Amino acid sequence: MRHLHPQISQTKLWAVIPAAGSGSRFSKTELKQYQYIQDRTVLEHTIRRISQLPLNGYVLAIGTQDTFAQTLAFQNIDKAHFCTGGAERVHSVLNALNHLLNFADENDWVLVHDAARPCVTIDCLNALVAKAIESNNSAILAIPVRDTLKQVKTGDHIGKTVSRDSLWQAQTPQITKIGKLKKAIEHALENNVTITDEASALEYMGETVRVVMGRSDNIKITYPDDLELARLILQSQS
């Protein structure tokens, strides 16, 4: 393990992994987090990565019909907690936060990380948590957009080219205080605001959210061919 920032080891850290998704873009029968890379599921790889931080524990929000998750050999299994996920990612995160508050303090830090992001590096995790602690602000991993962006109006017709100046592509983990995130999500849901990630709920509340430079290999497995890409990334990182 890389050397951790000294403040990190003295901070109460928890993680939430929403893993109740439908996997609609992947295939009708298999959830992407339960696909295998080498001899482990994507979710097991993801937990191994996030567990490189000195977590007090982590909560997996899983589907009501999910009998598979609790049979897996997760890293630091003694720190694993399970709760029922919700209809959308945002509901799963909220359920996990409520579950977390049974044994964690609302002022503890929480990292929310996608179940299908198994390639995040310890250096990025370290930088993210250090930024949050040092600035006492919420923070996310992100990378500047580098491709030319096109706005497509109808079908395959390009409407215009969108300037990528100051545009960043959000990744996870995203880190904030447990109580702050719970309040932000509840406030956004009450006002029917679309929440695509934790930062969007915090932004709606007027919270400062810092950006920490991530890496382009911190991919989210969304389509079937992403699985092969993740396999190659994990292989090259090891």
TrEMBL record:
Function: Catalyzes the formation of 4-diphosphocytidyl-2-C-methyl-D-erythritol from CTP and 2-C-methyl-D-erythritol 4-phosphate (MEP).
Site (Positions MEP for the nucleophilic attack): R164, K220
GO molecular function, one term: nucleotidyltransferase activity
HAMAP family: IspD (MF_00108)
Enzyme Commission number(s): 2.7.7.60
Signal peptide residues on this chain, from the entry's feature table: none
SUPFAM superfamilies (alphabetical): Nucleotide-diphospho-sugar transferases (SSF53448)
Superkingdom per UniProt: Bacteria
Protein name: 2-C-methyl-D-erythritol 4-phosphate cytidylyltransferase
Pfam families in the record: IspD
Keyword Transferase: yes
Catalytic activity, reaction form: 2-C-methyl-D-erythritol 4-phosphate + CTP + H(+) = 4-CDP-2-C-methyl-D-erythritol + diphosphate
Pathway: Isoprenoid biosynthesis; isopentenyl diphosphate biosynthesis via DXP pathway; isopentenyl diphosphate from 1-deoxy-D-xylulose 5-phosphate: step 2/6
Site (Transition state stabilizer): R25, K32
Nucleotidyltransferase in keyword set: yes
Family: Belongs to the IspD/TarI cytidylyltransferase family. IspD subfamily.
Alphabetical keyword list: Isoprene biosynthesis, Nucleotidyltransferase, Transferase
